[in-house]
Amino acid sequence: MAPNDSAETNGEATGTVVGRRKAARYIVPFAVAGVAAATIGLVPALADSGDPELPDITAQELIEKIAASDEEQLSGTVKISTDLGIPSLGGLAGAFAPDAGAGESSASPDARLMELASGTHTLRVAADGPGKQRVSILGEGSEYSLVHNGNDIWGHDSESNEVYHAESGGKDQEHKAPKGVPATPKEFAEEALAAAGDTTSVTVDGTAQVAGRDAYKLVIKPKQSGSTIGSVTVAVDASTGVPLKFTLAPSSGGKAAVDAGFTDVDFAKPDASSFSFTPPKGAKVTEADELKAGAEKSGAADKAHKDLSALEDFKGLNVIGEGWNAVAEIEMPGGAGLPAEGSGDVPPQARQFLDALGDKVTGDFGSGTVFETRLVNALMTDDGKVYVGAVTKDALVKAAGTAE
After folding, report:
1. Cβ(243)–Cβ(236) under 8 Å?
2. Domain range spanning residue 388?
3. What is the DSSP track for 335-380?
4. pTM for the whole structure
5. In a domain, 20, yes or no
6. Alpha-carbon distance 150 to 271, whole Å?
């Protein structure tokens, strides 16, 4: 079993790492959020079965192994469980989006992939390079499949027998990293470990078996108190360097907020038939352009344009604190907070939902309402400012009180 090897940086770190530490320490919390989002969207949890004996490996070597992984072909079954502590909107959805339904299709991927943000789901996945991928969400007696093959993207809802089709917009383009961005596995590892600076601990904490494969466990933890994130554990395939499982544990304890990983996986080239799709007989096929035209006709597109235009009134983003305790301060357009009860600006059902979710607070900033989840909390002040961060309510209120 690999030792509990720590990659925390200190005064004896190399000159390269020390030179990058100050800037890099801000990266890890946001990078972790990005990894979580990507994992939720593509390769989602499973039970470990034993701790295999593997050669010792350092955290830097393991990060380097992940960065060096070039596996582009795989297929398998994945499971994802997500518990962010967000109440289900249920029938309130219409209260928040009264125009919903215009120009929509049950096979459109936008809404279907959002299902992965809560509950437990089983998926089948396959990939053969950047031009061919397939993700199927398995339901009780139904299946939703999203297939990317070259320039075509197909979505199929077996329950309604509706099909969505779009064109991906041409050939894949090559992107080169700009100057200063790590381009080799070793540089990638140095940047990640430099971020361990004063706010983060990165360690190798033993081994596991995931989907029948031997894996190392890379554990990332905040050193700071006040974060809602307790730890992030990534099980890394010992042979290929491919992350097989991702677990995000909240600092409040209890079940994981996100637990995602393979239950079985095969790195052989998938059969070409996995990426072929022909609309079933009698299926209703909707083109992406038709959905766009329908939204424009209903006025939904114009409403969205106005909502986006309103963002121009934001006076910028101010970040309070650093690392895992960073809090974003945003000033709402017009300096308006939540509409007052009885104002008529929010439907009664939506108002009831917001009141149930929020918690009135006061502090040096004045007064406002905190909306809590297990990971991300937001404070909206009565004078129209919003503070958002992966920090506890107390830490959020304290940060708002220090804002200039």
Report:
1. yes
2. 314-402
3. G--SPPTTSSSS-HHHHHHHHHHEEEEEETTEEEEEE--SS-EEEE
4. 0.74
5. no
6. 15
